[in-house]
Amino acid sequence: MPNIQRKGKIMTQIRTPMVAGNWKMHKTVAEAQALAREIRRGLPASLDVDVVLAPPYTALSAVAREIHGSPLALAGQDVFWETQGAYTGAISPLMLADAGCRLVIIGHSERRQYFGETDATVNKKIKAALPVGLTPIVCIGETLAQREAQETLAVIASQLSNGLLGLGPSEVGRLVIAYEPVWAIGTGRTATPAQAQEVHHFIRRWLQDQVGAPVAEGLRILYGGSVTPENIRELSAAPDIDGALVGGASLKAESFLKIVALGR
Predict the structure, then answer these.
(1) Mean per-residue pLDDT, 151-156
(2) Known catalytic residue: 26?
(3) How many helices (H) and strands (E) in the chain?
(4) Is residue 108 among the annotated active site residues?
(5) Any domain includes 9
């Protein structure tokens, strides 16, 4: 939970940064174990960042064993909205929790692009994940066409409004939001710190209006989109950017650990 500091009459939240590695469709079980082991061994003795690994489903249990007793947390890359049933190929929230997951990525742009994810299904998945104790990392972001049409903030507001529909302040406070401009994912293009901060600030203000300042100030908002060891320091220095959702750079321990260090 975030620490709270009081300065005069103003209460500010100090949010613990989070760096989550989304391995996507990479790594066999043995490769995932080896990568998790290398990351675990490379963590600094004093860690002031929450570090999350999201391997493919087949490697969840093996990675859970590998990181047991360490500060590392495990996440699923997606989830279905039912706990069980005739849903061939789907993974339920209970199954993720049973495999050792504490978090789950929901609404990633690749799920939206290739697998028909919508704001409505994101909403259903969030509501299924929370009751079993999973922390949703809820992904939102605009396409290049939407940015060029100056629709970024309208798209973000719509995704938030529909994706978080029916959630109360206490439920929203258990989320992590990840802003990932679709045009920057896997392209090598990265939003400038100013561009990213503008959207992160908008997200926090939107949340403040909807669920109140305490929840909005305490909730972590990550940046995702070609995050590298070279750009993490400047990105994470922005006041409303609380860490990163990392794709390609999380597939090698050396680059991922540099990102975990936030460029320090």
Answers:
(1) 97
(2) no
(3) 12, 10
(4) yes
(5) no
pLDDT tier, 96 (very low <50, low <70, confident <90, very high otherwise): very high
Report which of 34, 95, 45, 94 is spatially closest to residue 70, judged by C-alpha positions. Answer: 45
Question: 99: Cβ–Cβ under 8 A, 6 or more apart, which residues?
Answer: 60, 61, 64, 74, 76
Q: How many domains does the chain have?
A: 1
Q: Which two tokens stand for residue 27?
A: 């790594």
Instruction: Give pLDDT, residue 13.
Output: 57
Confidence of residue 189 (pLDDT cuts 50, 70, 90): confident
Owning domain of residue 149: 16-39+50-260
Tell me, yes or no, whether 4 lies in a domain. Answer: no
Q: Which of 66, 142, 180, 217 is catalytic?
A: 180
Reading phi first (left if > 0) and then psi (alpha if -120 to 50, else beta), residue 110 is in: alpha
Confidence of residue 241 (pLDDT cuts 50, 70, 90): very high
Please state, in angstroms and rounded to a whole number, the distance separating the CA atoms of residues 228 and 250. 9
Residue 6 within any structural domain of the chain: no
CATH number (domain holding residue 142): 3.20.20.70
Q: Is residue 198 part of a domain?
A: yes
CA distance 152 to 143: 8
- Catalytic site residue from 108, 117, 142, 217: 108
